[in-house]
Amino acid sequence: MTLSKKLSKEISIVIRNLRLEKSGGLRWIYIPNPQLNSLQYWIQKNILATRTPHFASQAYTKGNSVKKNASIHCNSEWMVKIDIKNFFESISELKLYKVFLNLGYSKLVSFCLARICTVQIKRKT
User: Fold this and answer.
1) Hey, is 28 helix, strand or coil?
2) Where along the chain do its domains lie?
3) What pTM was computed for the model?
4) Using CA atoms, how far apart are residues 85 and 83, in angstroms rounded to an integer?
5) What integer pLDDT is reported at residue 10 of this predicted model?
6) Where are the alpha helices (DSSP H) in the chain?
7) CA 15, CA 72: separation in Å to the nearest integer?
8) What is the pLDDT of residues 62-98, one digit of tens each?
9) Backbone phi, then psi, for 55, in 5-degree steps?
10) Are 41 and 33 in contact (CB under 8 A)?
């Protein structure tokens, strides 16, 4: 199915969130509904996965695995393990918009794709 056919269907873009207690605090996990998840998967498979990723990128690249990624670091003297707070929320719609523009999409299509691929959550504190 083409992206235009997917977008032409009425889709309720709702994200379910879970609040999990984790050592050191709380963590929010955002889960797209099946329709949004399907759109995001289509974009990843048909647009993003067709491009050559940065040479250091290991995630979401065909043929890569946790084992392959770990093997790169086997002879390292140091390893830093970090967990970036609110990582996915930190990826702005504007940043993604520019990515799609640079891939050659029009301003409107880039805006739509960026909106589909970003989390826009306003939470009460």
Assistant:
1) strand
2) 1-51+84-125
3) 0.69
4) 6
5) 44
6) 3-8, 34-46, 66-71, 93-102, 107-117
7) 35
8) 778 888 878 888 888 988 887 777 777 788 899 999 9
9) -60, -30
10) no
